[in-house]
């Protein structure tokens, strides 16, 4: 019960809330004694801090002390494994803001391996008091189940127990999630993300993540979000590495689109390619929009591809295939969080697990 109360209070303050103990009591329904006990323990722990006084007080009696997230005392080690030829790591605060960073650049013939991650984490933790580290967060491509990388074609890993390895080596709790899920969490809390949203990431591949009432949809086989392997042309489409034909990933990824644009003879033809790719994405989105009744579609990708023409074409086709008297308008928009999106999201993932599972 105490852990649940702590989660309720933290959720109202994260990321930028400022509330008094009285406000927290009113919004959670907890008693004054319960709120005081939870708040005092979180203050001692370094999760929250006192950040001023309630300016909306009536003027009678003592003004309430405001509580907010403490970004100065606790740390997270966050690692992003989703980028090509680059491993990024950072020490962040509770809001995922990097305080110290480190990168490992890889040559075209070098692959990421587990020893690199151990080395990176080891270097990042050197100058930090171990008592202030609440966990390690990893954003990885592929299917992740309980800290095990079940399948990552990009990383070339299969059934790698990365969490177990890191926890045995460092002794901190380790949280590993798909990089698209991590990016979605960053957009939810630091961009314009709704509590229910579809997040699409276009890069070397194309992936999706779904949030329903602030709960991430993982799927029974931990593979929720594999939108790239929805087949739009199973009869005559391009053969996909997954074995099917006409998968979205053979049509709408950065390398595929850029190669098509490179071969185009005129600027107008290039623009038509961008628009057609937006329409193909909309075709894959139509069913989850109708099934889940989601109004917020966020697309993350390089600006030369996820540009105004792409988003306008996607929006037009989404409106055409999903609008009805039962479903109000679904907005297709560009992601508002830029660099470090996966790093920040993996840090938020650690914070959520820490709050929910105790310390």
From TrEMBL:
One Pfam family per UniProt: ROK
InterPro entries given in the database record: ATPase_NBD (IPR043129), ROK (IPR000600), WH-like_DNA-bd_sf (IPR036388), WH_DNA-bd_sf (IPR036390)
Top-level lineage group: Bacteria
SUPFAM superfamilies per UniProt: Actin-like ATPase domain (SSF53067), Winged helix' DNA-binding domain (SSF46785)
The family this protein is said to belong to: Belongs to the ROK (NagC/XylR) family.
Protein name from the UniProt record: Transcriptional regulator
Lineage: Bacteria, Bacillati, Actinomycetota, Actinomycetes, Bifidobacteriales
């Amino acid at each position: 019960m105490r852990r649940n109360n702590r989660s309720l209070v933290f959720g109202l303050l994260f990321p930028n809330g400022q509330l008094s103990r009285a406000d927290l009591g009113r919004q959670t329904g907890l008693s004054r004694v319960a709120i005081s006990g939870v708040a005092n323990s979180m203050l001692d722990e370094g999760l929250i801090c006192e950040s001023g006084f309630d300016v909306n007080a009536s003027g009678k009696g003592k003004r309430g002390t405001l509580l907010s997230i403490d970004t100065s005392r606790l740390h997270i080690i966050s690692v992003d494994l989703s980028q090509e030829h680059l491993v990024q790591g950072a020490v962040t605060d509770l809001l995922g803001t990097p305080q110290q960073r480190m990168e490992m650049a890889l040559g075209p013939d070098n692959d990421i391996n587990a020893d690199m991650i151990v080395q990176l984490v080891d270097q990042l933790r050197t100058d930090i008091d171990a008592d202030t580290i609440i966990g390690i967060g990893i954003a990885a491509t592929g299917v992740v189940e309980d800290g095990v990388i079940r399948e990552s074609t990009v990383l070339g890993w299969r059934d790698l127990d990365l969490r177990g390895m890191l926890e045995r080596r460092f002794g901190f709790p380790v949280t590993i999630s798909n990089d698209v899920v991590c990016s979605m969490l960053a957009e939810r809390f630091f961009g314009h993300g709704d509590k229910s949203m579809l997040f699409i990431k276009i890069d070397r591949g194309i992936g999706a993540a779904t949030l329903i009432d602030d709960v991430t949809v993982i799927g029974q086989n931990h593979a929720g979000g594999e939108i790239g392997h929805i087949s739009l042309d199973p009869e005559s489409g391009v053969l996909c590495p997954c074995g099917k034909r006409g998968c979205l990933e053979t049509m709408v990824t950065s390398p595929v689109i850029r190669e098509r644009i490179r071969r185009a003879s005129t600027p107008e033809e290039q623009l038509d390619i961008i628009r057609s790719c937006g329409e193909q994405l909309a075709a894959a989105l139509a069913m989850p929009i109708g099934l889940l009744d989601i109004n917020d579609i966020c697309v993350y990708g390089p600006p030369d591809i996820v540009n105004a023409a792409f988003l306008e074409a996607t929006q037009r086709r989404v409106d055409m295939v999903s609008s009805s008297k039962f479903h109000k308008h679904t907005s297709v928009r560009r992601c508002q969080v830029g660099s470090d999106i996966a790093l920040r999201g993996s840090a938020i993932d650690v914070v959520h697990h820490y709050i929910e599972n105790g310390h």
